[in-house]
Amino acid sequence: MTATSSASFRPALAAAKFGGLALAATIAFLPLAACSDENKAVLHTSTGDYTFNVEVVDTNETRAKGLMFRQELAKDAGMLFDFLSERNTSFWMQNTFIPLDMVFIAADGTVKTIHVNARPLDTTPISSEVPVQFVLEIPGGRSQEIGLKVGDKFEHDRVKK
Fold first, then answer.
1. Fewest CB atoms within 10 Å of the CB: 2, 16, 34, 143?
2. Other Cβ atoms closer than 10 A to 142
3. Contact predicate 44/105, CB 8 Å
4. Reading across the β-sheet that carries 153-155, which strands appear in turn?
5. Half-sphere exposure of 154 toward its Cβ, with a 13 Å CA cutoff?
6. Is the pTM of this model over 0.85?
């Protein structure tokens, strides 16, 4: 009877082990899934929807460094500055070697102001002009290429829905 009982439990034991492994794998990969969503952003314009692969910076240290010292930025890449709440903000291009467009975005994802083709190495302040929570830096001239306008919408996991 013991052999029979043991044999009848083997499939159940194997299923339990497999289920436990599947659960552990799912839990282990959850942070990776969250990161991949955080690295995607979409600008919705009248000419279409444009997806960007973004690096998110949300601390004083990471925001201060930004895209300084980078030599290139892919057409579909950018950096998303999250100030965690709306405020007036200002940027400059000191130690930044590539031209950038700066898209100033409200907490609800509305594009508020756009600065096109900020000049590399220029220390002239570039202001948001109005309170914003986010600033998206993308390659210089890209906002014009995609037809981005004030009032267009920005989509990202951090934007309040």
1. 2
2. 24
3. no
4. 111-118, 100-105, 132-139, 77-87, 48-57, 40-45, 153-155
5. 33
6. no
Question: Are the C-beta atoms of residues 129 and 113 closer than 8 Å to each other?
Answer: yes
Task: Find the Cα–Cα–Cα–Cα dihedral 130, 150, 70, 157, rounded to 10°.
Answer: 90
Q: Which residues contact 13 (CB under 8 A, 6 or more apart)?
A: none
For residue range 29-55, list pLDDT tens digits in order: 444 444 448 999 999 999 999 999 999
Sign of the Cα pseudo-torsion (155, 85, 65, 92, in order): positive
Place of tokens 């995607």: 40
- Amino acid (one-letter) located at 51: T
Find where tokens 């799912």 sit. 26
Q: Distance between CA 21 and CA 135 in Å, rounded?
A: 41
